[in-house]
Design goal:
With 561 residues, the protein is α/β, with parallel strands linked by helices. The protein contains 24 helices and 16 strands. The protein is globular and about 80 Å long. Bound molecules: phosphoenolpyruvate and magnesium ion. Phosphoenolpyruvate (PEP) binds next to strand 10 and helix 18. Magnesium ion binds next to helix 18.
Length: 561
């Protein structure tokens, strides 16, 4: 038995034999072309156009998040700058094959040098180049193998075109050696609920046919497991499957303590899916989607229509809408200064809205109108609130617009440490663990090289959550969690033990978290929280809580009939 590590995507566990993805086509020879330049140019263009059309076709077949990714790839394939680079090489006497290979490699190097999110797009370019080369050479494009039995797919990185159309009856799990938590493989695996571990560098040494257990919640790949490990993994997979099909009851602990389970949404169109998965409302509606593709803020009327569509999907239910959170990982040309050296520490979130208060006022106007026209219980909150003064500024302003429930996101250690004073003004706090972790650990959440620090299990982060939880209990105000941490079933129990009164997450995570909460009483959740706080680091906290949980009695008989 041996174990290797990467970044787990989702919470699933799967077991099966490894099948490796075929290696890439070899780089073409850089020998001068014997054809006319015009002929080579036409060959290159035809091949690129055919690949773009194929990607577009796959996009339509895939739908959803995959469709957007594949359409973006089709656009990259036909990028005019890339086309010019290919033509320039052909004019210098190169073959179409070499020109495509070299031009795409140049573009890839530029993206990699930029790093972060763009760096993780490098694999997309490799895939397009490989498809064009295969087309030029008249050979099949490299892709997912089909061994005729279910398998664990091990690859360097998967192209979106492959991930989008994976046959989930055959591919039990994905393991990649490259890519990080924001790579397209990770994004699509999350959206499709595929068990995946990405960035597992040592998976390059796994041979075809090796039996492995892929554990996404632990971020591990165990090869040649013993029968006890296989049995445990099978039990966990079965429990997960059962949870996915369990009745959509409201979130509650084993002792009946209610913990609302809410959805994180990015656009109103996603509301129906959240409702069908039992979301009791919305804990975080990210309004950025309305703004991201525009060069200026959408009109009040456009915003009202969108908010109204969202609120209409949740009559009588709580819907927490976050004011525009621009800057750092979500820059907007009309709100942010692109030349800030440290945008995560710059004029972002509420700070940038305050600097352009007209945009904030328009957003509040649109929300107040949508609220008046619908039956949902609208709560509004400001992102990236750092001080008590900012809290008072935002909550006063929201009330000026007749919005009765106004709160703040706690994403900065400063506001967590002064949570009692923040909650003296705010009606509620919602902890954004993604940013709270980034700022507590001083690690850019977009940077693969420091991804190891971006772990909300770190006791330093948990101590800040405890601070907010205690302040919520003292002031009698709700404390929600809306970062990725809430989607981790084991951590969700700990967060409740630290004082969270609601949890908001990607709808796909609701079933697992509902099940995890139903197994623990409040007293047990508090004891597990103590165990996590007592650890020295994130890995220690996770391990200690997993062990302590395993030794607790099961409450299943109380919660299932
Ligand atoms: C967070 O920071 O945890 C959060 C929920 O906000 P976002 O991920 O949109 O920054
Ligand atoms: Mg945030």
């Amino acid at each position: 038995m041996s174990e290797l590590r990467g970044v787990g995507i989702g919470r699933g566990v799967a077991q099966g034999p490894v099948v490796r993805m075929a290696e890439a086509l070899p780089a073409p020879e850089n020998t001068p072309s014997t054809r006319e330049a015009d002929t080579e140019r036409t060959r290159a263009r035809d091949a690129v156009a055919a690949v773009a059309a194929d990607l577009q076709k796959r996009a339509e077949a895939a739908g959803g998040a995959a469709q957007e990714v594949l359409e973006a790839q089709a656009m990259i394939a036909e990028d005019p700058t890339l086309q010019d680079e290919v033509d320039a090489r052909i004019d210098d006497g190169a073959s179409a094959e070499w020109a495509v290979h070299d031009a795409f490699a140049g573009f890839r190097a530029t993206l990699e040098a930029v790093g972060g999110y763009l760096g993780e797009r490098a694999a997309d370019l490799d895939d397009i180049a490989q498809r064009v080369l295969a087309r030029l050479q008249g050979v099949p494009a490299p892709g997912v193998p089909d061994p005729g039995h279910p398998f664990i797919l091990v690859a360097r990185d998967l192209a979106p075109a492959d991930t989008a159309l994976l046959n989930l009856d055959q591919v039990l799990a994905l393991v990649t050696t490259d890519g990080g938590p924001t790579s397209h493989t990770a994004i699509l695996a999350r959206a499709k609920g595929i068990v995946a571990v990405v960035g597992a560098v040592d998976a390059a040494g796994l041979d075809d046919g090796t039996m492995v257990i892929v554990d996404a919640s632990a971020g591990t790949v165990v090869s040649d497991p013993d029968s006890a490990q296989l049995e445990r993994a099978a039990q966990r997979a079965a429990a997960r499957d059962a949870a996915a099909h369990a009745p959509l009851t409201p979130g509650a602990l084993a002792d009946g303590t209610e913990i609302s389970l809410l959805a994180n949404l990015g656009k109103p169109a996603d509301a129906a899916d959240a409702v069908s998965r039992g979301a009791e409302g919305v804990g975080l509606f990210r309004t950025e989607f309305l703004f991201l593709s525009s060069s200026q803020a959408p009109t009040v009327e456009e915003q009202r229509a969108s908010y109204q569509e969202l609120l209409s999907a949740f009559p009588g239910k709580k819907v927490v809408v976050r004011m525009l959170d621009a800057g750092a990982d979500k820059p907007l040309a009309f709100l942010n200064d692109a030349h800030e050296e440290n945008p995560a520490l710059g004029l972002r979130g509420l700070r940038s809205l305050r600097a352009s208060e007209d945009i904030l006022r328009e957003q509040l106007t649109a929300l107040a109108e949508a609220d008046a026209a619908t039956q949902a219980d609208l709560w509004v909150m400001a992102p990236m609130v750092t001080t008590v003064e900012e809290t008072k500024y935002f909550t006063d302003l929201a009330r000026e617009f007749g919005l009765k429930t106004a709160g703040v996101m706690v994403e900065v250690p400063a506001s967590a440490l002064l949570a009692d004073r923040v909650l003296a003004h705010a009606d509620f706090a919602s902890i954004g663990t993604n940013d709270l972790t980034q700022y507590t650990m001083a690690a850019d959440r977009m940077l693969g090289s420091v991804a190891g620090f971006q772990d909300p299990w770190h006791p330093a982060v948990l101590r800040l959550v405890a601070e907010v939880g205690a302040a919520g209990a003292r002031t009698g105000k709700p404390v929600g969690i809306c970062g990725e941490a809430a989607a981790d079933p084991l951590l969700a129990v700990v967060l409740v033990g630290l004082g969270a009164t609601s949890l908001s997450m990607a709808p796909a995570a609701l079933a697992d978290v509902r099940h995890a909460l139903s197994e623990r009483s409040l007293d047990e959740a508090q004891r597990l929280a103590e165990v996590a706080l007592a650890a020295d680091d994130a890995a220690g906290a996770r391990k200690a809580v997993a062990e302590a949980t395993a030794s607790l009695p099961s409450h299943q008989k109380e919660t299932t009939s």
